[in-house]
From TrEMBL:
One of its GO terms (cellular component) is cytosol. Gene3D superfamilies: lambda repressor-like DNA-binding domains. Keywords: DNA-binding. SUPFAM superfamilies: lambda repressor-like DNA-binding domains (SSF47413). PANTHER family: HTH-TYPE TRANSCRIPTIONAL REGULATOR, METHYLPHOSPHONATE SYNTHASE. SMART domains: HTH_XRE. It comes from the Bacteria. One of its GO terms (molecular function) is DNA-binding transcription factor activity. It comes from Kyrpidia spormannii. Residues 9-64 form the HTH cro/C1-type domain. This is HTH cro/C1-type domain-containing protein.
Length: 142
C-alpha cells in the first residue's frame, strides 16, 4: 500500500516552510500523529483528520483524497443522514453554492449567525444603511 497521503502532507508542509510543530499548532493534531502520517507508519487517517489538515494547510480536502488512489471516497459518507439527504436534493444547490462562497471567503459560522441576526432585526436593507449607522459587512464579500 502506498503512502500517497503522507508524501503529499509532507510536501505541502515543507513547501510552506513549516515545521511539524507549526502544522501541529495550526491543525490541533499532535506532532507525533502528523509525523507518523508523513512517514507512513499510520496509513489511513480518519476523514476528520484529513479535514483538519486540509484546513490548516489551506488546501481543498480533495488534495488529499485524489492521492488516496486505492479506493473511491464518497464525500457524503461521513455526513449525518439528514445532511446527506439535504445536499443531494435538487433544490439544495443555491444553499450549497452559498456555503462554498462562505468557505472561500473564510466566513466563520459565528460571523454568519451574527450577520443573519443583524439582517433579521433591521428594517433596512444591508446595502442601504441610514445616516450614522455603521455599514454592515456582507459575509460573502472579501
Amino acid at each position: 500500500m502506498s503512502n500517497a497521503f503522507g508524501v503529499k502532507l509532507k510536501q505541502l508542509r515543507t513547501e510552506r516552510g513549516w515545521t511539524l510543530e507549526q502544522l501541529s499548532a495550526r491543525s490541533g493534531l499532535s506532532i507525533s500523529h502528523i509525523s507518523s502520517l508523513e512517514r507512513g507508519t499510520r496509513m489511513k487517517p480518519s476523514f476528520q483528520v484529513a479535514v483538519r489538515l486540509a484546513r490548516a494547510l489551506e488546501v481543498p480536502l480533495a488534495t488529499f483524497l485524489e492521492d488516496a488512489g486505492e479506493e473511491e471516497v464518497d464525500p457524503l459518507e461521513h455526513l449525518p443522514p439528514e445532511i446527506r439527504e439535504f445536499v443531494t436534493r435538487e433544490d439544495a444547490t443555491p444553499y450549497l453554492y452559498l456555503a462554498k462562497r462562505l468557505q472561500e471567503a473564510r466566513v466563520s459560522l459565528q460571523e454568519m449567525e451574527q450577520w443573519l441576526r443583524d439582517e433579521r432585526s433591521s428594517p433596512e436593507s444591508s446595502t442601504s444603511g441610514t445616516s450614522g449607522d455603521k455599514p454592515r459587512r456582507n459575509p460573502t464579500q472579501t
